[in-house]
Amino acid sequence: MQLKSRLTAGEALAALDGSVRALRGFGSDRRRPLTWHPMEVRARLGKWLVFFRLACRGDPGGAVKTVNLVAKIYGTDRGAVALGALKTLRAAGFRPPGPHRVPAVYGYAPGFGVLIQERAPGIPWADFLTGGAERLAAASARAADWLVQLQGSSAPAGPHGRGSDIDRIGRFGEELADNFGSRGAPARRLGLEVIGRLNAGSCPALPSHGDYHPKNVLLARRVTSGVDFDAFGLREPAFDAGYAVGQLLIMSYFRLGTFEPGGRGALAFWQRYHEVGGHAPWDRVAVHVARCFIESLHYELCVLRNVRTELLQLWTQQADLWLGSNGPATLERLAGRGRWGP
Fold first, then answer.
1. 104 and 137 share a domain?
2. Reading across the β-sheet that carries 100-101, which strands appear in turn?
C-alpha cells in the first residue's frame, strides 16, 4: 500500500524518537522514558503505525518498567481528532475499572502529528471469525455492548458532516462506473439509491466511532476496547451499526471465502444490540450495510487497484440485497439458516 503522507518510514521513526524524548512523565508515579524499541512498523492510509516497547522509571533509582505502546504518525496535525476523542471518552468512563475502554494517551506532538497511546489488550473481533460459533457469538455481543455504551454516553463530540458521508457514496458510484463501464454501472445506481434512502429520513445524532469495524474492536478477558478514532463525531446510530455488520461480512468473505461466519457474527451482534436498547432502527442499518459494500468496492478497485474485478458483481449484489432487506432474516440467510433472498 502506498503511503499518502509526506513522511518516509525513517522520518516517521525520527519524529517518534523526538516525541518520546519530549514526554514529561506519565502514570501515577510520573514515570520518565528511558529507551524505546520498535516491534512493528506499518503504513496505513496516509499515516504510520509503530508498535513499540518503552522502558521507563518512576522515582530516581526505582525499578525500570516496560510498557507496550503504539504511535500513530500522521505527518501533520491530523491526529487532533483522535486525541480529543480519546480524552473525552476516557473522561466519560471508557477507562479502568470499567469493562468498556479506549486507550490511554501518553503524549501528542502536533508538529508531525505523533499520537502516542496505550496498546489496547486483546484479540481483534475479526479474528473470532475462525474461533468457533460460540466464541464468535460472545465476541459479537460484546462488540454490540461497547457500541451501545458509546451511543448512550455523555462524551462530547463535534458534528460530523452528514452531507460529506452521503456525497462520498455518490462519488464512489460515479468513479466505479467511469472506471469499469457497464460492469460498474450498478454501483452508480446503487450509490444514488443509498443517497435517496439516507436523505429520506434521519435520526438524532449520537457519538459515533466513524470506523467501527471488527479490526478496531479488541477483546481481552474482561475488557472490550475500541481503537482508531480518526473519524470520531456525531452521526446517526445506524452509521456505526451498519458499518460493523457490513465489514464483518466483508472480512468473512475475504478471509474464508464465504459470508456465513460473518453472517452468524453479525446476527449475534444485531440481536445483542437490539436487546440492550441500541438506538438504530433496522431499515437505516440495512441502508448503511449497502453503503459499506459500495465503499469497500471503491476502496478495493479504485484505491488499492485490486485486480479482483469479480467483486463488481458480488459486492453490488450484496448492496442490492441489503437495500431490499425488511428484517434480520437477511442475516439468517447469509448465515446459512434460511432460503436465499432479501
1. no
2. 100-101, 224-226, 217-219, 123-124
Secondary structure letter of residue 244 according to DSSP: H
Domain count within the chain: 2
Boundary (domain end) residue, out of 85, 118, 151: 118
Beta-carbon contacts of 115 under 8 Å, excluding residues fewer than 6 positions away, are 71, 72, 73, 74, 79, 82, 83, 105, 107, 108
Range of the domain at 93: 9-118
Distances (CA, A) of 245 to 155, 170, 186, 226: 24, 21, 22, 16
- Per the confidence metrics, is the pTM higher than 0.85? yes
Residue 342 belongs to a domain: no
**pLDDT of 126 higher than 90:** yes
* Model pLDDT, residue 340: 36
Helix, strand and coil in the chain, % to nearest 5: 50, 20, 30
Q: Which of 275, 279, 238, 16 is nearest to 141 (CA)?
A: 275
Give φ, ψ of 29 to 5 degrees. -105, 15
Specify which residues 72 forms β-bridges with.
Answer: 49, 115
